[in-house]
Amino acid sequence: MQRLINIILLFKEYFVLTLLIIFSLILLGSNDNVQIRAFRSYTVSFLGIFQDALSIIPNVFELKRENEILRQLNVNLSDEVNRLREARLENIRLRSMLGLKEHGDIKLVTADIVGKSLHLLRNTVTLNSGENSGVRSDMPIISEKGLVGKLIATSARYSIGQLMLNKDFRASARIQRSRIDGIIAWDGGEVLKLKNVSKTQDVREGDIVTTSEYSNLFPADIKIGFVSRVSEKTGSLFKDIDVTPSVDFSSLEQVFIVITEIDSERVALEKKTIRTRK
Question: Residue 70: which H helix or E strand, with range?
Fold first, then answer.
């Protein structure tokens, strides 16, 4: 109590001034004089105008918080748009692949590419389908665009595919228009080569190249690409033919593995014939 009294005595001037102001306001409020009423009216008007002026000034902290919320919302919406766009593209790819699966007369196993190499002489892909899905080595790999390659190794849940862009890859091929046969191979670079086509054969730029029935591995009539250049080398009996693949290997994400059964009797007979010729 003594401490409170000491504080009051210390700040007595301020307490007296506060009491006088309160008393003056009470008198002003209770006085019904004409001048006092006018003064109160002007005071209220001034305070209203001052408050309206202050309301025009934006609240910086509130605006900053709202800006952060809007920025976060914009990020979330952008992410959602990207995911919807990716889902739409994947839906288009799957529809196209499903159409291939429905209209073809061959059994297919779907696989995703989980590993890829496109900068070597022996390029391969790793697929997430293996022996548990019924696949094995030498089975063809295709996409909705055409031939991709073939399997060269399998495990229970994964498999390795040899791309057409591989120095060791070979496939029997045919010009769709003129039915000219050849061997598709890769010598490095961005295009394939159609080999063993003599200079007298009818091959033109723009011709579509497909697999032929002469292959023991690949079903016939799978699109490989189109002829992008035809030339002749001096002293050679064969044309120099470039074939641009129909498959874009850099953007390839999903493929089909063709479930095929190799004709063992045919393979044995062909090997026997080759040994006899030697």
Answer: helix 60-103
Closest residue by Cα to residue 209 from 196, 198, 193, 190: 193
Structure-token match 């900053």, residue found: 64
Cβ neighbours, 10 Å, residue 123: 20
Is residue 252 within 8 A of residue 172, CB to CB? The reply is no
Q: What tokens appear for 166 in the block?
A: 């591989």
- For residue range 56-67, what is the model confidence (pLDDT) as tens digits? 555 666 777 777
Q: How far is Cα 114 from Cα 253, in angstroms, rounded to an integer?
A: 8
pLDDT digits (tens, 9 = 90+) for 171-212: 999 999 999 999 999 998 889 999 999 999 999 999 999 999
Fold for the domain defined by 108-261: Thrombin, subunit H (2.40.10)
Estimate to the nearest angstrom the gap between the alpha carbon of 239 and the chain centroid. Answer: 39
147 CB-side CA count, 13 A: 35
Q: How far is CA 13 from the centre of its chain?
A: 78
Q: Please check the confidence at residue 274 and state whether its pLDDT lies above 60.
A: no
Here the tokens at position 255 are 């493929």
